[in-house]
Design brief:
Arc Repressor Mutant, subunit A; mainly alpha; three-stranded antiparallel sheet; globular; 3 strands
């Protein structure tokens, strides 16, 4: 177990609380904006991820979204039923299916990106470029550390 520096606790705890609260509030903000499009948080999150990284398998998408593959199946069934995605046999693994956005999803993705960009601008108003660069670097280091820890390494 790692030694805890008592001096750092005074900074770490409020930072961790702020990070968690900001993340929840940001998602809630987007959730309200996407509600008019008829999208739940689970749906818009999956569609965004597929717009960035199409042709992933269901297992890969579940891992990226941080949910169980079985949980994702119902969500994908709904997106497929709405004509927004399709499942295709994987070229690398005949047991797997890859996920693809349909043409019908294109205007929805464009609108989601517009809403997302406007929300980002609104949320981050008054934060300087330098502050954003520093925050991005810190969050990236945290994500890397979390990945290392989740893989059971102590690095």
């Amino acid at each position: 177990m790692m030694q805890i520096d008592p001096d750092k606790i005074e900074l770490q705890e409020p930072f961790a609380r702020s990070l968690a609260a900001s993340s929840r509030m940001w998602r809630r903000h987007l959730d309200l904006r996407f509600r008019d499009l008829g999208l739940s948080q689970a749906r818009w999150n999956a569609l965004f991820e597929l717009s960035r990284n199409e042709a992933v398998t269901q297992v890969e998408l579940a891992h990226t979204l941080g949910i169980e593959a079985a949980t994702l199946v119902r969500l994908l069934d709904g997106l497929e039923g709405a004509g927004l995605i399709e499942r295709r046999p994987s070229a690398e693994d005949r047991r797997a299916k890859t996920l693809h956005l349909t043409e019908a999803a294109s205007p929805l993705i464009v609108r989601m990106k517009e809403i997302s960009a406007a929300s980002r601008a609104e949320i981050l108003e008054g934060i300087s470029e330098q502050e954003l660069r520093i925050a991005t670097k810190v969050l990236s280091r945290i994500a890397t550390r979390l990945e290392i820890l989740s893989n059971g390494q102590n690095g």
